[in-house]
Amino acid sequence: MALADGHLPVLPLGADKRPLGNCRGCADLACGGRPNMKTPGPCLCPWPCHGWAAATTNPTVLASRQWGLAWRRARAIGYHPGGANVTVVDLDNPDAVEWARTALPATTTVPTTRGEHWIYSGTVRSVNAVRPGVDIKSLMSYARWLGPGTGAMTDVPTAVHQLVQEKSAARPAPRAVAVPAPAGGGRCPHRSPVYLERGIAMAEQRITEASSGVHATVYRVFLAVLSAHGRCGCLTEAHIGRLFTAAQAKGETARHCTDAWSNATTTLGM
């Protein structure tokens, strides 16, 4: 509660350092959500129940009955760096720490089990393995709270921005998950092509206008589009590409988009 009062969005972590579900349906990942909670799983809860998206500073929520079970089982406290307007450079071994001391400006540092967290002011896209033993945790990610650390916090350096950009650029372009056409030749049974166009445009708008819970919104939009058009064969790679582009403009990675689309097709039995 003290951390939340200090504007740090927190969430409960288990002994394995992974987020715990804060409702009974999500406890022990009974909802089917992915263990690391960085990509949306089949969980269709109407509110964020696990992972970075569930992190909050609301004292009423944190003390609620809904969260009680998770807090009783928690073995550590996690937080959403992006929600606190900070970036954590997670240095996972002594070699990574030595690299940071020569390549990055000094900032707030926190010792970890195997290395250090270097915490900077400002946010970037979260990317793992930007170099050996170095992960960047900021937007749409979580980190373990290990104390306030020492040293004055400085702004995210250019070197970190460059690492994120280089790693992101090295990723392959998003690939649409193919939706099989029906045996009847793939002709759309809907009223007209205008119906599909309107649906795709509305889906793009819903993603673009999301002010919070972007991760869950993208998954649910993909699910809705596939529910309406996924079995008739009318979706093209151009349509899917438009949805992926809208999602990536809101901070989703190509991998997140592909996983969300794949999870939606699995949920619908496609």
Please describe what this structure looks like.
- The protein has 270 residues and is of the alpha+beta class.
- The protein has 9 helices and 8 strands.
- It has helices spanning 2-5, 59-62, 65-73, 94-103, 158-170, 193-208, 214-229, 237-249, 254-267; strands spanning 10-13, 76-79, 86-91, 108-111, 116-121, 127-131, 134-137, 143-144.
- The strands form 2 sheets. It has a 5-stranded antiparallel beta sheet. The chain has a 3-stranded antiparallel beta sheet with strand order 1-2-8.
- Helix 6 runs antiparallel to helix 7, helix 6 runs parallel beside helix 8 and helix 7 packs across helix 9.
- It is globular and about 60 Å long.
- It starts with a helix and ends with a helix.
Strand fraction band?
5-15%
What distance lies between the first and last C-alpha atoms, to the nearest angstrom? 44 Å
**Count of runs of 4 or more consecutive helical residues:** 9
The major beta sheet can be summarized as: 5 strands, antiparallel
Percent range of helical residues:
25-40%
User: Whole-number radius of gyration?
Assistant: 20 Å
Uncertain segments: 34-42, 174-186
Characterize this entry briefly.
It contains 9 helices and 8 strands. The chain has 270 residues and is α+β, with helices and mostly antiparallel strands.
Give the SSE map.
Blueprint: H1 2-5, E1 10-13, H2 59-62, H3 65-73, E2 76-79, E3 86-91, H4 94-103, E4 108-111, E5 116-121, E6 127-131, E7 134-137, E8 143-144, H5 158-170, H6 193-208, H7 214-229, H8 237-249, H9 254-267
Antiparallel strand pairs: 1-2, 2-8, 3-5, 3-7, 4-5, 6-7
